Amino acid sequence: MQCTLLYDSTFASFNKIEYMYNDLVSFEKDLKEKSTSNLIIVLKQERKYDKWQDAIDELVEMLKEELKNFEMLAKLISFDDGCALLADMLRRMVQCAFD
Hints:
Number of helices: 5
Order of helices and strands: HHHHH
Low-confidence stretches: none
Distance between the termini: 29 Å
Mean pLDDT: 86
Number of strands: 0
């Protein structure tokens, strides 16, 4: 996979993870503020779940799948074939997310 496509795919995957994680941690605040953009709120409404936990569980599964996708993309990065900028970007993204 060429570096540009790999960069775009990795960055998109990271953004999805970031948004899903944010929706998990901000759920109670978003619920109090009557937000309609939190994915848990959207899932409960769209799937017609009776319980919030069902929507939370679905989001957690979506997050797990995207983390697997991100890990797979990260494994495709070769640190020796001119993708050094991509490797550095990936390192910074992960470091930022977990600092």
